[in-house]
Design a protein that fits this description.
The complex is a heterodimer of chains A (about 180) and B (about 190). By secondary structure, chain A is mainly α. Helices cover about 65% and strands about 0% of the residues of chain A. In chain A, α2 (about 25-30) crosses α4 (about 75-90). The radius of gyration of chain A is 19 Å and the shape is globular. Chain B is built from 8 helices and 2 strands. In chain B, α2 crosses α3 and α7 (about 150-160) packs across α8.
């Protein structure tokens, strides 16, 4: 059953990435070069809308809080995020969109995926020697979230923290709407 | 043409919400490690081994590699049993791209351009050079994603929708480097 859900969700996600332009490196470098903010508006509003309904679902208990999964916060998140940002801007692909673009027959995306497999392999080999370094030191509260999720340290301790998360979601949509089509 | 930004946002939200309601948050970059493991275990049958005897082992598998062995052999299990949720999800994305690409090639209004305009403007018409750039980027992106413990899907989208501090930090770090890089390298 889980495999069937995986196929349905993966197909839906791949289809959406393609239809919103995320699998097109032109749209990615347009967003990052600030000359075409279409994707920025889409991503921001997407996170906002998803967050709004997620916390609505958590508050009314029709979403199982056990399905949430909060990633830890350590220095490696910042260093790794910066590295990903560099390659993302150069190639115009991130892991998910690279897969969809490669499937669509883009040779540059196929090379991106081969590089990705090698990068992941290098990390797998050197993981053990990175353990115990500052990169894995916890910062900003480790497994922390702004609102209560049930599986993390909530930074907003008020009872209504999930309501604030819904407001934040709405604010992201409003901000996305206020962004111009291009900044440069 | 591509969907309007708001329709795009709603569609993205639907994907991430459905995934979290039905199973767990969407993530992609872990599967690069799993595919590596599947390939490597074909050459090294000691890389991932079943461990049924120990009482405290949750996954039932362990690996000689510390990374594949972490979280009680969670990755080791996914490598030993490739027909699993995470890999099926990502393979579906790949097939999806294939089908979508087929129809995109047939329609004349929006064909796939093999060499992006931004590359041609900056580096000329050399395809091998574009491939070298994307290959190098792929190495850096997955090294970064694995060090961070997630990529654009897992950290930025899934993380920020759950208001995870790690998600905000990841997104800030990624954009702080990506925006100047894109502007400096592909300046019009």
């Amino acid at each position: 059953m889980e495999i069937v859900i995986a196929v349905i969700l993966g197909t839906l996600f791949g289809f959406v990435l393609q239809r919103i332009g995320a699998a097109d490196p032109e749209k990615i470098t347009g967003m990052l070069g600030l000359t075409d903010l279409h994707l920025m508006k889409a991503i921001l509003s997407g996170i906002g809308i998803a967050s709004f309904f997620l916390f609505l679902g958590l508050m009314s208990e029709w979403i199982d809080a056990g399905h949430l999964s909060i990633k830890s916060m350590y220095w490696g998140v910042i260093v790794g995020g910066a590295m990903l940002g560099f390659g993302w801007a150069l190639a115009g692909f991130c892991p998910g969109t690279g897969i969809v673009a490669a499937g669509a027959g883009r040779m540059d995306a196929v090379f991106f995926l081969i590089g990705g497999l090698i990068g992941a392999g290098i990390y797998t080999i050197f993981y053990e020697s990175l353990l115990g370094t500052w990169l894995f030191e916890s910062v900003l509260g480790g497994k922390a979230t702004l609102a209560t999720t049930g599986s993390s340290t909530a930074l907003i301790t008020a009872d209504s923290s999930q309501f604030y998360a819904m407001l934040l979601g709405l604010m992201m949509v409003v901000f996305a709407r206020s962004l111009p089509e291009r900044l440069r | 043409m591509y969907w309007h930004w708001f329709k795009s946002g709603c569609a993205l939200a639907l994907c991430f919400l459905l995934a979290i309601i039905l199973v767990k948050p969407i993530g992609v970059s872990t599967q690069f490690v799993i595919v590596d493991g599947i390939v490597l275990s074909a050459f090294d049958n000691q890389l991932v081994v079943a461990e049924k005897s120990e009482g405290n082992v949750i996954s039932g598998y362990r690996s000689s590699n510390a990374y594949l062995n972490k979280s009680n052999g969670k990755y080791a299990k996914a490598i030993a049993e490739p027909l699993n949720y995470g890999l099926a999800f990502v393979v579906s994305m790949l097939l999806d791209g294939f089908i979508g690409g087929y129809f995109q090639k047939k329609s004349t209004d929006n064909p796939i351009k093999q060499l992006p305009d931004f590359h041609e403007r900056r580096f000329g018409h050399s395809r091998p050079f574009r491939y070298a750039i994307t290959f190098f980027s792929g190495v850096i992106v997955l090294l970064g994603a694995r060090l961070a413990g997630g990529c654009t899907s897992g950290h930025m989208m899934s993380g920020m929708m759950q208001t995870a501090v790690s998600g905000y930090a990841f997104a800030l770090a990624a954009f702080a480097i990506a925006i100047p890089t894109a502007i400096l390298v592909y300046r019009q």
